[in-house]
């Protein structure tokens, strides 16, 4: 109900004034103009002392307050409680301050309606009750309607202009944000642009990386952090934002208002927020910066006043947060790009640095500064799995690292450790670096010892390269594990490292193998020289001289056994020609194009015979610096001549027996058996049967060897061969000495035939060689038979002289004798060819060569 006025308008002048005022009201563009019309024009009509216009906006906003004693302040306005009522008939003065209450006797309130909606009240204050005019209701309605419309117009204009301004500022912000490239740029925008749009005391922007493992803060210039002497720069990088606090903020997903009085008491309140509180911040508004499903950060507005932000401000904060999200996303992406770029550069520099590395020493030299520079790693040991795949051992380490210099670490650098030690195997199984718990460290069986005093912490990372795992153990004394922050770079570096290590390992293996091959080559060279000498020697004795019946038997046996691969046992006193016979068997066998390898079982120390026979692997015994193949392998495809077999130690007799039975051998220290195809010829001057009976020679080996025995007669038992042998050796040594000795006295010959020859043909050979050297003239008149057996003879008589003839002559004469004996028959039963053990065709060609005609003989 509208309060009735006491006085009525009396004349037309007043009506004109009201009409005029209303026209002016309609034309008012601003509060100022509106105020002027009310105070100057309408005052004439209302004759009030002062007036107030309340607008019932959402926030009960006071539009005008022209009370001289009151500040324009929403909170303190005396009419604030009534603006939502359409009228009030209470004694308004009770709401006035003391001085105002005394000043005004009457307050009249007129409701203002616009488009059917109450928009506020027009309150008139009168100092004197009597001064209240008596205005007609129509007139009052007319004026309030005009005033409501004018006020509504001004409010609409203001709203438009405010929106325009906000729009302009947001555009500016948007422009500024679009040019943000770094945290520094963002800080500048926060400081320069936000203040124009929003009223605040300070701003905090929290930036989160994807896994929220660390975050950075950007503080506006008014923030107390800028006054903290420990913190320099516009933003800081800290980990102190407790996860709980962060989760709580992000949970809201919209603007959340935090009462700092309460929050600073809670456990989850981070230190910098406490600092804000201590610096007078009473209210904090937070809103997450979210892009799709990722939280990029949090935007915080800090205020020293509580409840100072209205819904329009909150909308503005949301709007700013949207823009900041774009900026933060750009910053993080750009940082990621720059980080990747830097990592690529670092990786490239790392690749270049280690590209030329060829060995461990070079690797350590290059690696240590690189790991320090790129990842901040000081003390590290890189371990590689051994070839047995059961153990691992340090491969390369920082030789100048402080921790590694300690005695405990030095010891572990030469250790082999089981792969299943709880560290290496765990590191291999894990895709990520594993951090080793220092307390468990001591309970594990094999890991490198840690220095408990230095509080060492180890990080182990493993990588596989071509199924060869290598692990890097990094030691440090802080819990800021190197490599964690630059995980990707770390992994890339490790992958490259693994490649280089595998190259080094391959190089080392190759060098080892090359040296082994060189060893073999050298060995083969030696073998070649040895064999050449053997062959040269063999060639000297390629002819077995002897015509005695016993030698005929030997020849026959050689011819019988040679074509087969049967084992032959040659028995006979020393110097009877056992080796010569062995070589004859080999040269007449299908194996003649391969080697006949001789092993003198008596000439080697017992401990070397095995290696000599079967070979050995590198490192299989002290002194085995290289791999060496044995005589069995060397003779593969040919003949193995085991001279002096009777001297073989019993333990080797077993091994030899096995090798002969299995036809395969095993190198000393070797893990595999090697098949060999050899023919064995053994020889001894001992009575092997007696040796066997007396237990010095294994019976099984004896029977294995005694498959085809050839018994060589002692020279004293075939003395009729002495002239032939003497002729052969005199010719040989005379030629060698460049002499022409053709004649030997019959006396000497008879003495020689009477001599026992304990050294057999070798003794004869040496005696004649010496005698020829001492002989003067072309007749051998003296030989030096051992005195106790015989005496030196001097043969004076010419008719006693033994005429030396050539082999050819001897051969011719002998064939002639045989042909005579066979009555000129060459082939067939009991023909000369059969008696001489040669094919008839061979004998024919021989006869042709020697100029023997059958018919002459017959
Ligand atoms: N029938 C032979 N004709 C020519 N030379 C022979 C004959 N028999 C042996 N010799 C020579 O006698 C020397 C000794 O021969 P060989 O080494 O073969 O005897 P051995 O029985 O093997 O001796 P040892 O038992 O001492 O090893 C050699 O120089 C060899 O050429």
Number of helices: 28
Number of separate domains: 6
Average pLDDT works out at 77
Low-confidence stretches: 1-9, 60-77, 80-93, 229-235, 447-454, 788-800
Number of strands: 28
Quick summary:
With 858 residues, the chain is an alpha+beta fold. Helices cover 45% and strands 17% of the residues. It is rod-shaped.
Write the layout of secondary structure elements.
Elements: H1 12-27, H2 31-46, E1 50-55, E2 62-65, H3 98-103, E3 106-114, E4 117-126, H4 137-178, H5 183-197, E5 202-208, E6 215-219, E7 235-238, H6 243-252, E8 256-259, H7 260-263, H8 271-278, E9 283-291, E10 294-303, H9 311-355, H10 360-375, E11 379-385, E12 391-397, H11 407-412, E13 417-418, H12 424-429, E14 434-436, H13 438-441, E15 457-465, E16 468-476, H14 487-540, H15 549-561, E17 568-571, H16 578-587, E18 596-600, H17 606-614, E19 615-616, E20 628-629, H18 631-634, E21 639-643, H19 650-662, E22 664-666, E23 673-675, E24 679-684, H20 688-693, H21 699-705, E25 708-711, H22 722-737, E26 743-745, H23 746-754, H24 760-774, E27 779-780, E28 801-803, H25 807-821, H26 832-835, H27 840-850, H28 854-857
Parallel strand pairs: 17-24, 17-25, 18-21, 21-24, 26-27
Antiparallel strand pairs: 1-2, 1-4, 3-4, 5-6, 5-10, 6-7, 8-9, 9-10, 11-12, 11-16, 12-13, 14-15, 15-16, 19-20, 22-23, 26-28
Helix pairs in contact: 1-2, 1-4, 4-5, 4-9, 5-9, 9-10, 9-14, 22-24
The structure holds adenosine-5'-triphosphate.
Adenosine-5'-triphosphate (ATP) is lined by residues 541, 544-546, 572, 574-580, 643, 685, 761-762, 765.
GO molecular function: ATP binding; DNA binding
Pfam family, one: Sigma54_activat
Domain Sigma-54 factor interaction: 544-773
């Amino acid at each position: 109900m509208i309060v009735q006025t006491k006085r009525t308008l009396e004349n037309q002048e007043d009506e004109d004034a009201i009409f005029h005022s209303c026209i002016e009201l309609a034309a008012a563009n601003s509060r100022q103009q509106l105020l002027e019309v009310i105070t100057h024009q309408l005052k004439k009509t209302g004759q009030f002392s002062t007036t107030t216009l309340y607008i019932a906006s959402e926030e009960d906003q006071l539009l005008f307050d022209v009370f001289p004693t009151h500040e324009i302040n929403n909170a303190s306005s005396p009419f604030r409680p009534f603006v939502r009522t359409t009228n009030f008939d209470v004694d308004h003065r009770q709401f006035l301050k003391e001085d105002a209450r005394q000043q005004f006797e009457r307050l009249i309130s007129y409701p203002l309606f616009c488009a059917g909606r109450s928009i506020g009240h027009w309150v008139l204050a009168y100092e004197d009750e009597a001064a209240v005019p008596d205005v007609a209701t129509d007139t009052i309605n007319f004026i309030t309607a005009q005033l409501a419309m004018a006020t509504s117009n001004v409010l609409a204009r203001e709203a438009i202009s405010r929106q325009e301004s906000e729009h302009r500022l947001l555009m500016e912000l948007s422009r500024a944000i679009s040019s943000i490239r770094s945290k520094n740029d963002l800080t500048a925008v926060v400081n320069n642009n936000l203040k124009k749009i929003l009223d605040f005391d300070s701003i905090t922007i929290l930036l989160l990386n994807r896994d929220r493992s660390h975050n950075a803060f950007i503080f506006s210039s008014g923030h107390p952090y800028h006054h903290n002497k420990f913190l320099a720069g516009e933003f800081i990088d800290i980990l102190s934002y407790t996860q709980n606090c962060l989760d709580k903020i992000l949970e809201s997903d919209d603007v959340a208002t935090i009462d700092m009085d309460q929050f600073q008491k809670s456990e989850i309140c981070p230190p910098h927020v406490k600092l804000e509180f201590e610096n007078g911040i009473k209210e904090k508004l937070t809103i997450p910066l979210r892009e799709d499903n990722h939280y990029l950060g949090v935007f915080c507005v800090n205020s020293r006043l509580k409840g100072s932000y209205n819904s329009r401000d909150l909308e503005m904060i949301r709007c700013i947060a949207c823009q900041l999200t774009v900026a933060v996303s750009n910053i993080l992406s750009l940082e990621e790009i720059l980080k990747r770029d830097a990592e690529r550069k670092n990786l490239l520099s790392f690749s270049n640095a280690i590209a030329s590395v060829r060995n461990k020493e070079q690797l350590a030299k290059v690696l240590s500064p690189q790991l320090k520079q790129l990842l901040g790693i000081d003390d590290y040991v890189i371990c590689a799995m051994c070839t047995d795949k059961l153990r691992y051992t340090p491969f390369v380490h920082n030789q100048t690292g402080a921790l590694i210099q300690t005695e405990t670490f030095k010891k572990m650098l030469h250790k082999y450790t089981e792969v299943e030690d709880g560290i290496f195997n765990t590191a291999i199984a894990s895709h990520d670096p594993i951090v080793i718990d220092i307390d468990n460290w001591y309970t594990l069986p094999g890991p490198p010892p840690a220095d408990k005093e230095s509080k060492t912490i180890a990080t182990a990372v493993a990588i596989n390269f071509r199924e060869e795992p290598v692990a890097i153990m990094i030691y440090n004394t802080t819990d800021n594990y190197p490599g964690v922050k630059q995980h990707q770079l770390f992994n890339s570096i490790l992958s490259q490292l693994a490649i280089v290590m595998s190259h080094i390992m391959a190089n080392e293996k190759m060098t080892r193998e090359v040296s082994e091959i060189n060893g073999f080559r050298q060995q083969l060279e030696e073998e070649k020289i040895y064999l050449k000498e053997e062959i040269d020697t063999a060639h000297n004795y390629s002819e077995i001289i002897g015509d005695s019946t016993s030698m005929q038997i030997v020849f026959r046996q050689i011819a019988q056994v040679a074509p087969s691969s049967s084992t032959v046992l040659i028995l006979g006193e020393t110097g009877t020609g056992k080796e010569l016979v062995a070589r004859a068997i080999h040269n007449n066998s299908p194996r003649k194009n391969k080697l006949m390898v001789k092993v003198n079982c008596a000439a080697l120390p017992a401990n070397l015979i095995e290696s000599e026979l079967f070979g050995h692997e590198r490192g299989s015994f002290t002194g085995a610096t290289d791999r060496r193949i044995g005589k069995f392998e060397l003779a593969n495809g040919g003949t193995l001549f085991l001279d002096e077999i009777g001297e073989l130690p019993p333990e080797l007799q077993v091994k030899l027996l096995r090798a002969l039975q299995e036809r395969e051998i095993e190198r000393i220290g070797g893990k595999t058996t090697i098949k060999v195809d050899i023919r064995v010829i053994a020889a001894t001057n001992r009575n092997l049967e007696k040796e066997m009976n007396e237990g010095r020679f294994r019976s099984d080996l004896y029977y294995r060897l005694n498959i085809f025995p050839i018994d060589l007669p002692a020279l004293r038992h075939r003395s009729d061969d002495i002239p032939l042998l003497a002729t052969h050796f005199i010719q040989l040594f005379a030629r060698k000495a460049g002499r022409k000795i053709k004649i030997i006295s019959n006396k000497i010959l008879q003495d020689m035939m009477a001599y026992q020859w304990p050294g057999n043909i070798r003794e004869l050979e040496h005696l004649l060689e010496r005698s020829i050297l001492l002989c003067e003239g072309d007749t051998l008149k003296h030989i030096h038979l051992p005195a106790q057996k015989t005496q030196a003879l001097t043969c004076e008589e010419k008719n006693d002289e033994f005429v030396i003839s050539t082999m050819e002559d001897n051969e011719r004469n002998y064939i002639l004798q045989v042909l005579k004996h066979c009555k000129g028959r060459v082939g067939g039963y009991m023909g000369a060819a059969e008696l001489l053990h040669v094919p008839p065709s061979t004998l024919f060609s021989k006869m042709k060569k020697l100029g023997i005609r059958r018919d002459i003989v017959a």
